[in-house]
């Protein structure tokens, strides 16, 4: 209502409210290397395209004669009451989305402005403590890329705990970077600019001698990055991961029901169904098509989801298919690129407003009602 009301008075949202126009504007505004970093995916980007396209073969059936004058989008996750199921997925090197290289702080500010939690990436440009401080009262999560050096991993987790993050999300699918032709064809390694200023440079374990922060040399920075991270995780590492923190532990990138069961047996508190937005492996089926199998195997364990969310309608479909929380990736990055913290906040508000309006029209007063209604493959 507020968005429409303002629009009628000629006050339009800071950035376009639909993804296609948003992406087109970002395409025009971003330097080519930054654009290829955010927009690009793995191989010929078939999986990335499928992620978004697959939402079109899931549909919902409306219910009538239900009082939906008030909608409750709130959800519970790890004992937190969140105002909506939407969160900001972890995006590394977000610094480069804004001119000042502090895109991570702008993302955190958007989180504070909207109440939408941010999952801060290990590969943020700003230190994780500063990112947490910008999130204000909105709870945040910390995403861990596991360094080869266990002490560094433990130090990052301890810092995240001390900074007040509410969950540790370990990404499993990125011990090596996927085949990304856009980067190779243009020799436009976007990370070059961001790599000289990374969150982990500030870590005491890193500084105490793992490597010299290559602040002046971007190529060395990228090489150091590969040397520092890239630990291959196996199920044998689960006791170590589990023992590292008392915070809720979530595994990101789990899509197979057998892996879901194994993760839960070994102590995971949450399962994050995602194919990294199609950036890591090509040829995989759309993430939303894997969600029902993951939800079924997870039972009462909460399932987080991302990959392909482009609108509020997509959020509601993911909830209908059983997601407890739904991550948005590229859309908020484009918001950052076009309007900093306000731009990202505007993107998130549009997604929330569309979700809310859909619930109103479809007769779903709560997310439980959305789940009860479900979604059907068309
Ligand atoms: C990512 N993603 C990601 N994931 C993660 O666990 N750690 C990270 O540092 C990053 N970095 C990153 C950078 C960029 C530019 C993008 C676009 C994505 C993956 C991200 O968390 C999420 O899984 C996808 O972005 C979801 O897909 P959509 O919403 O972008 O389609």
Automatic annotation (TrEMBL):
Cofactor: FMN
Annotated Gene3D superfamilies: Aldolase class I (3.20.20.70)
UniProtKB keywords: Oxidoreductase
Domain FMN hydroxy acid dehydrogenase: 11-378
Pfam families linked: FMN_dh
Keyword Chaperone among UniProt keywords: no
Coiled coil residues, start to end: none
Protein name from the UniProt record: Alpha-hydroxy-acid oxidizing protein
Stated family: Belongs to the FMN-dependent alpha-hydroxy acid dehydrogenase family.
Species of the source: Sphingomonas tabacisoli
Keyword Oxidoreductase (UniProt): yes
UniProt xrefs under PROSITE patterns: FMN_HYDROXY_ACID_DH_1 (PS00557), FMN_HYDROXY_ACID_DH_2 (PS51349)
Origin superkingdom: Bacteria
């Amino acid at each position: 209502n507020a968005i429409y009301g303002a629009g009628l008075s000629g006050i339009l949202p800071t950035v376009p409210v639909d993804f296609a126009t948003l992406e087109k504007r970002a395409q025009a505004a971003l330097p080519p290397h930054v654009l290829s970093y955010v927009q690009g995916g793995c191989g010929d980007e078939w999986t990335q395209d499928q992620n978004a396209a697959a939402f079109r073969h899931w549909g919902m059936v409306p219910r009538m004669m239900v009082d939906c004058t008030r909608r409750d989008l709130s959800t519970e996750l790890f004992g937190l009451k969140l105002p909506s199921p939407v969160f900001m997925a972890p995006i590394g090197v977000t610094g480069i989305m804004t001119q000042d290289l502090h895109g991570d702080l702008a993302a955190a500010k958007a989180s504070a402005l909207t109440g939408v939690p941010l999952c801060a990436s290990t590969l943020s440009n700003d230190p994780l403590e500063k990112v947490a401080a910008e999130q204000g009262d909105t709870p945040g999560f910390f995403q861990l890329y596991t360094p080869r050096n266990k002490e560094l991993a433990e130090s990052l987790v301890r810092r995240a705990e001390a900074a007040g993050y509410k969950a540790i999300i370990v990404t499993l699918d990125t011990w090596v970077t996927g085949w990304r032709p856009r980067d190779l064809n243009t020799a436009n390694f976007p990370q070059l600019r961001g790599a000289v200023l990374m969150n982990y440079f500030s870590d005491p374990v890193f500084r105490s001698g793992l490597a010299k922060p290559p602040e002046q040399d971007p190529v060395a920075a990228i090489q150091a990055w590969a040397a520092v991270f890239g630990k291959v995780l196996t199920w044998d590492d689960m006791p170590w991961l589990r023992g590292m923190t008392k915070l809720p532990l979530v595994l990101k990138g789990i899509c197979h029901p057998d892996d879901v069961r194994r993760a839960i047996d070994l102590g995971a508190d949450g399962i994050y169904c995602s194919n990294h937005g199609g950036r890591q492996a090509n040829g995989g089926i759309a993430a939303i098509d894997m969600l029902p199998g993951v939800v079924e195997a997870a039972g009462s364990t909460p399932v987080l989801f991302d990959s392909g969310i482009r609108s509020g309608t997509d959020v509601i479909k993911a909830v209908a298919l059983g997601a407890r929380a739904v991550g948005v990736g590229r859309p908020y990055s484009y918001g950052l690129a076009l309007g900093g913290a306000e731009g990202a906040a505007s993107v998130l508000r549009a997604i929330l407003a569309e979700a809310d309006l859909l619930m109103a029209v479809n007769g779903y007063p709560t997310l439980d009602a959305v789940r009860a209604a479900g979604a059907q493959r068309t």
